[in-house]
Amino acid sequence: MNRKKSLLKNTLILSLGQIFPQLVGVITLPIYTGMLTSAEYGRYDLINVIVYILNVVVILQIHQAVFRYLLDVRGTEKEKEYITNTIVFELGPSLVSSVLFGVCFRELSVSVRILLGVYLFLNIQNSVVGQISRGLGKNRQYAFGAIINSGLNMILVVILMAGAKLGFKGLFISLDIAFLSAVIYQIIACKQLERIDFKYLSKDVLKVMLNYSWPMIPNTLSIWIVNSCDKFIIRFFLGIEMNGVYAVAQKIPNVFSIAYSTFNMAWQESASISVKDKDADLYYDSIFKALFDFLTGCMLILISATPILYGILIRGSYEAAYDQMSLLYIGVFLSSISSFFGSIYIAQKATKEVGISSLIGAVINCIVNIAMIHWAGLYAASVSTIVSYLILTLYRGTDVKKRGFADIKYNIKHILLCLSLISISSIICYQRVLYLNIFNFLYGALGFIMLNKNMIKGIVITVEHKIKGRSAHNE
Fold first, then answer.
1. Domain count, the chain
2. N or C: which end of the chain has fewer CB within 10 A?
3. In a domain, 228, yes or no
4. Terminal CA-to-CA distance of the chain, rounded, Å?
5. Are the C-beta atoms of residues 75 and 135 closer than 8 Å to each other?
6. Residue 52: how many other CB atoms lie within 10 Å
7. Per residue of the chain (475 residues), what is the pLDDT tens digit?
8. 3-state secondary structure of 137
């Protein structure tokens, strides 16, 4: 199977594990916004932010290292070496941090604090076993684990929040049971316990893995700062209710971001496997050009559908959230392009460069946000996101070429055209006028077709060949 077909296959498989959770998120969002107050929803969102940070810091991103190094040793005895050292290293810190995490929330009941501690521990374990599954090439099992997690969570949320009216407590009971089920499934389905052998414990192996993984901490934390530190700034200057509004504003734009993350997971694997190929530069260049046009087209469609999605999905007093979405769309688009370049760094095992570039973006985000929030209010968070990701994208796009990691030939006029198309669509969406919304949908559909006409033509030809082949076979 050639690289592009393998990339497409893995993207489709991983998308099952990403799209389904997103659909579940869409279904449960009305329950969350309807059953929780703005303050409760804001607290829930901040808890997820803290869990995300601890997931990154506590185990020094070693799950990223085990994925990358397993790619090089698939099917060999050395799999046990990397998996064993990863599990032994991460279990202790995970347990200690989970206990401390639960203890910190003194304003909550003891039972809820226990649930929060369990939530952190299972969140970390899900990250570890998930990356091991991917490193072993078990993308189907990885995707199905995500489906189990989200599907079970949806069922329990309906039962415990909408039915039993357990509110905040019911939310975390649902999350804990869902995460536990997903972790157990992946451990069994991928036979991970069979790949743990304590004779392979090695300080040298662990040192190599940590030298790779720890520079990923500033990268991942910087992404968090750009995405989530805004929420702390908003809470401090504008109050927790506005934090809830901003969290809701991110929901629909983040559908694009999370959908892209599916491709990026497959792209990390493909870029890493292809890094030593003689035609790696040509491969990276062709993927970038096709991806940029495809993402632009998808963004145009999503922006044009926002008025409908907002009316269906958002409940409660979150009217101010709509005004932020037009700006946030541009931010998540730039974030996706910067992540593409980040995967090339990872393929080259240049994790320090990933961390440095991400840190630059994070610092810029904080400076712009704090400088603007006194007079721009909630718009400061959205604008700072655009500025930080724009600078991060420009930096990485230039740097990977300068370092010889990828000789991508940029068509500046075409790139500016695509960014203009997205900006125009966002401005139209912001107006909230019916006839403009109709025009925007037609504009987005036409833009998608024009940008991706070669891809669409290729799909049509492939389908026609398959239909003719089946017809000939039946005759």
1. 2
2. C
3. yes
4. 29
5. no
6. 18
7. 466 677 777 777 777 777 777 678 777 877 777 777 777 777 787 788 788 888 888 998 899 899 888 988 888 889 999 999 999 999 999 999 999 998 888 878 888 899 999 999 999 999 999 999 998 989 889 989 989 998 998 899 888 887 777 778 888 999 999 999 999 999 999 999 999 999 999 999 999 999 888 887 877 776 666 666 777 788 778 887 787 788 888 878 877 877 787 778 787 778 777 777 778 888 888 889 988 998 999 889 988 988 888 877 776 667 778 888 888 888 889 989 998 998 888 888 888 888 788 888 888 988 999 999 888 888 998 899 899 999 999 999 999 998 888 888 999 999 999 999 999 998 998 888 888 989 999 999 999 999 988 877 776 776 666 666 665 555 5
8. coil
Separation CA 273–CA 283 (nearest Å): 12
- The verdict on 155 and 267 lying in the same domain is no
Clarify whether residues 194 and 270 are in a common domain: no
Do 248 and 166 belong together in one domain?
Answer: no
Cβ count near 449 (within 10 Å) = 11
Are 237 and 196 found together in one domain?
no
Asked if 157 and 116 count as a contact pair (C-beta separation under 8 A), the reply is no
Domain span at residue 142?
A: 1-203
Q: Is residue 466 a part of any domain in this protein?
A: no
| Structural Rg of the chain based on CA atoms | 23
Residues 46 and 176 both lie in one domain: yes
H or E segment to which residue 339 belongs:
helix 319-347
Residue 369: closest CA among 179, 207, 228, 463? 228
Distances (CA, A) of 60 to 57, 207, 212, 301, 463: 5, 12, 10, 38, 46
